[in-house]
Each structure stands twice: as structure tokens, then as C-alpha cells.
Amino acid sequence: MSPGSRQWGAPWFEETGGMGAWCSSAEATNMGDRPRERDIKKSGEKKTLKLVLLGPEQSGKSTLMKQLLRIHNGALDSKTRREYIEAVNNDMLQNMVRLIEKSEHYGGKDASLMYDDKLTDDIKTMLDFIDNAAEGPIEEAIGKIITKIWTDPAVQKCHETISDPEYDLDDSATYFYENVQRICKTDFVPNMEDVIRVRWRTTGVYQETFTVEDHVFKLIDLGGQRSERRKWKSCFKDGDVNAVLFMVAISGFNVVCKEDPSMTQLEEAYELFKEFTKEYPPVATILILNKFDLFVNKIPKVDITDCPLLKDFKGDCRDIEETVAYIEQVFYQIHCSARWYCHFSTATDEAMVKHIFWDVKDTVLQNSLRKAGILIS
Description:
Layout: H1 10-16, E1 21-23, H2 25-29, H3 37-41, E2 49-54, H4 61-73, H5 78-82, H6 85-107, H7 120-132, H8 140-150, H9 153-161, H10 173-178, H11 180-183, H12 192-197, E3 205-212, E4 215-222, E5 241-249, H13 265-279, E6 285-290, H14 292-298, H15 320-332, E7 340-344, H16 350-371
Parallel strand pairs: 2-4, 2-5, 5-6, 6-7
Antiparallel strand pairs: 1-7, 3-4
Helix pairs in contact: 4-16, 6-9, 7-8
């Protein structure tokens, strides 16, 4: 098996329980040498293991962090979940405004993309509500209007067929619109799925700590916007980073980058990963190709060769195994380290994140033991 290549097929799926990880051949050689608990305990005093989340904006870093905290620290209580009501409501309303404006903009060029005239009064009512409503619940009547707009065939066609960073919706917009009647009830309290999915833009440095099998992990989420990336290197100055989880939205191969419309999200992630491997200290790296569920939904309808980064792909654009193998190889050509993992992920999928973190934990502990001279490669 060549470095960075995956093991596909039924046995692989059965062994990992779903979309999982592959590793370089050098790492695969040592897969049988996983550190046992008694070996780890011999290493002396327990220390905090530092994990850093990197990646461009909208790659899913904050979603992954919230998911890991739910898994290892437990669900939030209702009082804390109430603090997310405003964020959920804002997401719903802001996405709806973008959806309407997108239909109006492109509907002026193609009538099939313009919402039904019968929705005009409803849209005015909803926009008036947005302009005048103070913080609080979305009225049930507004929720019904949102459903009518969302299910309009022209609106759906415009949403599905045109990518425009000025109007595109957040990835979880569909989830919230499918739950709009629940969300618009006066006694609405977000559940944990709502909390995981709501958009949460990271600025500055955000960190949380959790314990797994007596091992303490400090997880640091750094903002992915270009203005925030200058802060990244400060996390590496003490040389105590045990691993980097680098997030890439694999579904972004045909989504225009908000901060640079001349490239797609996947191209921006590629360039950023290249910069990371050249300019940052060597560290164990787990490349997480996230939003795999959205990628799978796109493949039957969109060719990956539409993305300039993937234009040389010669395989079947409808074949999941072939397309993801090629994308992985493109990133592998940047980072040919002997010790690195790559995962496909859907950060909103709790079971998948549990499996991924098991491998992340194993990688970090092995590296920690190697540094201490307890485990020999």
C-alpha cells in the first residue's frame, strides 16, 4: 500500500464501523504497537495533551469541538441550551433573507428561479417581523411563512443549482427549516442537536478541557477567517502541541470561497494546508476531510473536475471511492510525513466523531510515549 493510500471495501467498513481513517505505510507498520494503558502509566506524572484545531472558515472546526465536548463532558443542561436560542433564531432568519435575495437576484435573469408571486405578501410580513422584532422567539405564524418560502420549487431550484458566496446558506440551514415548527413554539429550548448544528463563528482563541480514560486533553479552536490566522503561531511557540487536527470541507470543491471569490473553499483549504506544512513546526497531523455527507449528496449531480484543483482527475466522477481517493492523494502530495492520519468526517455525526477521536487519542499517546523514550518506533 502506497503512503497515504486507503483500504477500501467491505472488510474495511466492517472493521471501522463506517467512514474511518487511513494512515501512511510507515504508520501502518506500527499499528500493532498501540500503547497499552500500563505502558502509558509508566511514563510518570499525567500531563495535559494539547490538541489544536486549524482550518479555513466554515470547515467545521467549531462543530467538531462542540461534538467532542458533548461526547466527553456530557449534554448541556437546559439553562445553558437556552443561551443558544438567539443564535438559532438569527441563523434561521438570516438564511431566509439570503434565500429570498438570491431568488430575486437570479430570478431576474431566469424566471424559473423566482419565487411564486403568491409569496410576495408573506415575504413582506416576514421581513417586517425581522426589522421590528426584539430578541425573543419567532412567532409561529412566521414559522409557517418560512416553511412556505423554503418549500417553493423555484426557491429550492435556485438554492440547489447556484453557488454564490453572497447568498449561500449555512450548511445546517436545511436541518433548521425542517424543524421550524418546533423551533417557533413559545416554549422552545434548543436540544443538543440544535446546539451542535447552529453556526458559531470562532474569533480569537477558544479552548476547552476534557478527560478521556484518565488522560486530560486541552482542545484549542482557532478562528479560520484570514484576519484570525495571524494568531495561530502563538499556540506553537512553547513547543507543547501534541497534535494538529486540520479541518477541510471536502464538500467545498464547488463552493466559492467567501473571502476570495476567485477560488473554491477546497482550493483555499489546499493552499492553507500547504502553508501550514511549510511554515509551522513539525507536529503530528490529522487531516480531517469534513462534511462528507454533503460531498456524497453532491457527487451524483456535480463533477469534481469543475474544481480547478481537481481538473486532472480521470476517473468516474460519480464514484465515491475514486473521487475521495483522488482528493486524498492531492493533499498527500503536500504532506508526505511518515506519521499522519487522514479521516473522512461528518462533524454532526456523533458516532463518526467518536471513532475518529479514538484514533486521534491513540496517535497522540503514541507520540507522547516516543518523546518520553518509552515507545520505540
